[in-house]
Amino acid sequence: MQWSSAQLQGCIVASPDGRVDEATAEAFTEHLVSSVTLAADCAGKKLIVDLAGLDYMSSRGLRALTLAKRQADAAGVAMALARPNEVMREILAISRYDKLFAVTDTIETAI
Amino acid sequence: MLVRFWGTRGSLPVAATATIVQDKVAQALLAASGRSFADLDEARSFARNELDFATSGTFGGATTCVEIEAGDPAAGDPFIICDMGSGLRGFGLDAMRRCSEGHARTYHFFMSHLHWDHIMGFPFFVPAFDPNAHIVIHSGHEDAETALRRQQEEISFPVSFDWLRARIEFVTLKPGETYRIGAVQVEVMEQHHSHSSFGYRFTDASGKVAVFSTDSEHKLEKMEGEADVAHFFREADLVICDTMYSLADSVSMKEDWGHSSNIVAIDLCHGGRAKRLALFHHEPVYSDADIARMHAESMRYEELTREHDPLEVLCAYDGLEVQL
Questions:
Q1: What is the per-residue pLDDT across A49-108, written as a single tens digit (0 to 9) for each?
Q2: Closest-CA residue to A101 (of A60, A58, A64, A53)
Q3: Which of A41, B30, B32, B269 is the most buried (most CB within 10 A)?
Q4: CA angle at residue B203 from B200 to B206, to 5 degrees?
Q5: Which residues in chain A touch residue B298, judged by CB atoms under 8 angstroms apart?
Q6: Which of B268, B293, B305 to probe the A interface (max A CBs under 10 A)?
Q7: Cβ-Cβ contacts under 8 Å, B249 against chain A
Q8: pLDDT tens for residues B185-221?
Q9: CA of A59, closest CA in chain B: separation in Å?
Q10: Which band of pLDDT confidence, cut at 50, 70 and 90, is reported for residue B170?
Q11: Is this complex scored with an ipTM above 0.85?
């Protein structure tokens, strides 16, 4: 799994690439933790996880998102998920994670 | 090995109301769309084969009780039963019938834990009044006898535990050990639940494996320990798994309620390369349509995240039999 992040209008946009499963969940979690810390130091205090490059995510990845959201809430950082592909959109719906997170079609909407 | 589900609901027994039954009849009439049936058998065939399960049937409302039939009952192999929920009453009556036809009157129970929904069937378990019956209650808990005696104290029930006629004994099992009991080999795993719970892995002489893992929460903070659970599920022919909540519920408002989700159960089965999963311990507020929807979504998630051989996802209901 690849990971990149950028600052956009005072927000951190984190972009994982590949798949999040048993093998990559730990790296995904570590990147999320770092991204929340970066977002806490930015003016916008917002972390947008850009899902466009993700093929799919198992429960390990979904639960890593929950842990990151708890860290973000404690740091006063808002968190949103953007641009899921069709598979990710289905997984977010089946797991009901679309009820826990704001999910947007574009990065701009998430900002 | 044959697995019979006598109770599949979680937490509290439920029953269909008149309105629920009327809705099912109305939907069936709509689906029939004016067709006529020559007799009851033809109408029954239509209901069984052409209606969806949530319309023609029900997942049922009895709490946890699962029978594992292994070995050769005709040759004297004993009964094996997981948990004593309200589904135990039906099992007990059927067991009396089978005993009258020659089945051995020995019952080996394996208790996930001692919460009320998992023991409430025992006061209504008719074989406990059979003076020729031998009941062995295996549990990871040392206080199983206390729990069963307490629910039959006078304040809760009119028949004292001491009035039961069967020979009843309690055996405490240890996680990590392997036991030979009846016609199966049994392994035990401790699980996360209030006052703890235990999962059981049954292997018969032909190598068929059924795992019973209910009332088990897989904590966010302990995800690294899930490899052990996947190993416990390894290549099982059937994993019966607590799938009471959605993943979102299990990590938010229902966190620490001691239960798992369909999503995590599928991931654990995938991790262990299990062959078949039975969704189990259904949320009592769910309607049949809700459970059917959860089943369809679970099959879809399995398909979306599959990396190896397909995992067959069943949805347990009271009365389901699965031949392994």
A1: 999 999 999 999 999 999 999 999 999 999 999 999 999 999 999 999 999 999 999 999
A2: A64
A3: B269
A4: 165
A5: 94
A6: B305
A7: 96
A8: 999 999 999 999 999 999 999 999 999 999 999 998 8
A9: 6
A10: very high
A11: yes
* Residue B205 in tokens: 């002489």
Chain B 187-246, residues with CB within 8 Å of chain A CB atoms: 220, 223, 246
Write down the CATH number for the domain with range B2-14+58-323. 3.60.15.10
Domain boundary assignment for chain B:
2-14+58-323, 18-56
CA-based nearest residue in chain B for residue A63:
B220
The conformational region for residue A32 under phi > 0 = left, psi -120 to 50 = alpha, else beta, is alpha
Alpha helices (H) along chain A: 25-40, 59-74, 86-94, 107-110
Helix locations, chain B, DSSP H: 18-32, 40-50, 53-56, 88-100, 116-119, 144-150, 226-232, 247-250, 262-271, 288-305
Phi first, then psi: what are they for A106, rounded to 5°?
Answer: -135, 160
Domains of chain A: 2-110 (3.30.750.24)
> For residue B206, with 0-12 CB atoms within 10 Å meaning exposed, 13-18 middle and 19 or more buried, which class applies?
exposed
Six-digit token pair at A92? 């977010």
How many Cβ atoms sit within 10 Å of the Cβ of residue B211?
26
Residue contact B263–A94, C-beta within 8 A: yes
Summarised one tens digit per residue, pLDDT across range B42-71 is 999 999 999 999 999 999 999 999 999 999
Give the pLDDT score at A31.
95
- Residues in B closer than 8 angstroms to A59, CB to CB, are 247, 261, 263-264, 266-267
